[in-house]
UniProtKB/TrEMBL annotation:
Domain RNA polymerase sigma-70 region: start-end pairs: 26-92
Keywords associated with the record: DNA-binding, Sigma factor, Transcription, Transcription regulation
Descriptive protein name: RNA polymerase sigma factor
Residues of the RNA polymerase sigma factor 70 region 4 type domain: 122-174
Pfam families: Sigma70_r2, Sigma70_r4_2
NCBIfam families: sigma70-ECF
Family membership noted in the UniProt record: Belongs to the sigma-70 factor family. ECF subfamily.
Top-level lineage group: Bacteria
Transmembrane segments: none
């Protein structure tokens, strides 16, 4: 961990500097985490809700942050868990499976005012949506966030080798999806 990250963490943990440091934390990570969450839940309004819940959870659990991992890794882990919990909760409320919720969101991207992608990007989201959950997460973190395998392994609490295999399988499945037309 870099010295300036240690100092920043100390500011987050100190009652005197905590509020100011937390505002800085939000400024540093809200865009990255928004995109990460958006790639999981696909819906802008849901993403905003999950992002807000993520920062609430971060703030209320600052004292339990294990300083052996990077702050960004911890934030991504919380955001990932919050996004998955949101999808599971939404599915339960609607009497559906989680993949049915994400499939519907992927299909409806064309009507989402906040989605500014073209047809190829819509199709990519639909292809990603066909992946099993772990492959979907690994692909999104590697492809869209350009995270290193080591960091993804910490976020998802799994091995680097397993992640590389998941990413490779995900890419092959996405290629097959695109070539099936």
């Amino acid at each position: 961990m870099q010295e300036n990250e240690k100092q920043f963490i100390n500011e987050l943990l100190s009652p005197k500097t905590q509020n100011q440091a937390f505002k800085k934390l939000i400024g540093l990570y809200k865009v990255q985490l928004y995109h990460h969450i958006r790639n999981i839940v696909l819906n802008h309004d849901d993403t905003d809700d999950v992002l807000q819940n993520t920062f609430i959870k971060v703030f209320s659990n600052l004292d339990s942050f294990n300083q052996e991992s990077k702050l960004s890794t911890w934030l991504y882990r919380i955001a990932t868990n919050e996004a998955l919990n949101h999808l599971n909760s939404k599915a339960r409320k609607n009497g559906l499976q989680t993949d049915e919720i994400t499939e519907s969101a992927a299909t409806n991207l064309h009507s989402d005012l906040y989605f500014d992608g073209d047809e190829v990007q819509r199709k990519l989201q639909q292809a990603i949506n066909t992946l099993p959950e772990k492959q979907k997460l690994v692909f999104n973190m590697k492809y869209f966030q350009d995270l290193k395998y080591e960091e993804i392994a910490q976020i998802l609490n799994t091995s680097v080798g397993g992640l590389k295999a998941s990413y490779h399988l995900a890419v092959k499945k996405i290629e097959t999806f695109f070539n099936s037309d």
